[in-house]
Design goal:
By secondary structure, this protein is mainly beta. Helices cover about 15% and strands about 40% of the residues.
């Protein structure tokens, strides 16, 4: 499963609070198929059947990942890069 750093979790929570007050919405990771690099996008969405869900410590849905995308994110870490003011996805290094 995709892992999140504490900074990424904090920034996702801030983003969610800034863009919606609807408790049913969370942030979904999607693949931008129109991009040549097939980059990931973050969008607001409702939970769908089969989603993998990352919850906040308070139990609210924070991050939604479609079941067909989750295996492709196995071994990756979602972080937030302050200098870029953006989220980054890095493959975990194996030692």
């Amino acid at each position: 499963m995709l892992e999140l750093t504490s900074l990424a979790t904090m920034k996702l929570m801030e983003t969610l609070r800034e863009h919606t007050h609807d408790p049913h919405l969370a942030i979904r990771i999607t693949v931008n198929s129109s991009s040549r690099s097939r980059s990931l996008d973050l969008v607001l969405d409702n939970e769908k059947s089969g989603d993998f869900i990352v919850k906040t410590t308070a139990g609210m849905n924070l991050l939604l990942i479609q079941s067909n995308l989750a295996p492709r994110l196995e071994g990756y870490i979602l972080d937030y890069e302050e200098a870029m003011n953006d989220f980054t996805l890095e493959e975990m290094t194996r030692h």
